[in-house]
Specification:
The protein has 109 residues and is α+β, with helices and mostly antiparallel strands. It has two helices and three strands; from the N terminus they run αβββα. A hairpin with a 5-residue loop joins β2 and β3.
Length: 109
């Protein structure tokens, strides 16, 4: 019985260490996301819309749940073929809305 109790205590200790490590990882992830959000707010995006053959500006979420703006555009390769491309911009919703507004204004011209 003594050996079994020791194994239980060892497992409890391991579980506690894993939980502590998990909390540390979660805290660091939250800190990294906060820093990324601050950088996104401070970042400026300038696009020469007239130089790109843009057909869409969308808001999507990446695999880890982070928001991104996707600019869809056509690119002409060396053979003259139009290829669909995407440009991913990691930005907050305010910058995304600004890009959508710029895109819509460019389409009016």
């Amino acid at each position: 019985m003594f050996g079994f109790n020791r194994q239980v205590r060892d497992l409890e200790t391991r579980i506690k260490k894993l939980k502590d490590n998990f909390e540390i990882v979660e805290r660091r992830e939250a800190e990294a996301l906060a820093i990324q959000e601050q950088e996104n707010r401070a970042a400026a995006v300038a696009i020469a819309w007239e130089k790109l053959d843009v057909f869409s500006v969308e808001r999507q979420f990446n695999r880890s749940g982070g928001p991104a703006t996707i600019i869809g555009y056509f690119f002409e390769d060396a053979n003259g073929n139009r290829i669909t491309k995407e440009w991913v911009i990691w930005c907050n919703i305010e910058i995304h809305n600004k890009l959508v507004q710029e895109f819509n204004e460019t389409r009016k011209k």
